[in-house]
Design a protein that fits this description.
Length: 134
């Protein structure tokens, strides 16, 4: 292999590795933001207000009506289905939310480390600790 091909292969490998690391980091940030969305408390609570649900449903229905050229009776039928589905999901969400909250509170992942204090939010940087003698 010529030196220029070897250098090109190294550059491509570095780009692929860097992209994978950046993608994993971005995914982790988005996952952490999303998991906070479904936790209780504050304006980002996972439980949507009835008004927000109605606005979301109306926006979806408006787009479907426009894209699919729905008749008024088709639109009314779809709205009825969406209202029933929202009600059913609200009940299931209400039943499951306490259990999900309990699971996330017990999970010893980055969420707990991020709750600490200090410049890094309590996270410890560096290699993982070595296991001690059993």
């Amino acid at each position: 292999m010529s030196p220029s091909r070897g250098r090109a292969a190294l550059i491509i490998a570095a780009i692929v590795i860097g992209s994978a690391i950046a993608g994993a980091g971005l995914d982790r940030v988005l996952v952490m933001r999303g998991s906070r969305h479904y936790r209780g408390g504050g304006p980002r609570s996972g439980e949507m207000s009835l008004e927000m649900t109605a606005r979301r449903r109306e926006a979806m229905l408006e787009r479907m009506s426009k894209d699919l050229n729905l008749t008024p009776s088709q639109r009314a039928a779809i709205d009825s289905i969406m209202q029933r589905t929202d009600s059913s999901l609200r009940v299931v969400r209400g039943e499951m939310q306490p259990r999900l909250t309990q699971i996330f509170d017990q999970w010893p992942g980055p969420r707990r480390a991020a709750r600490g204090s200090g410049p890094a939010g309590g996270m410890k940087w560096g290699p993982p600790p070595r296991p001690g003698p059993a």
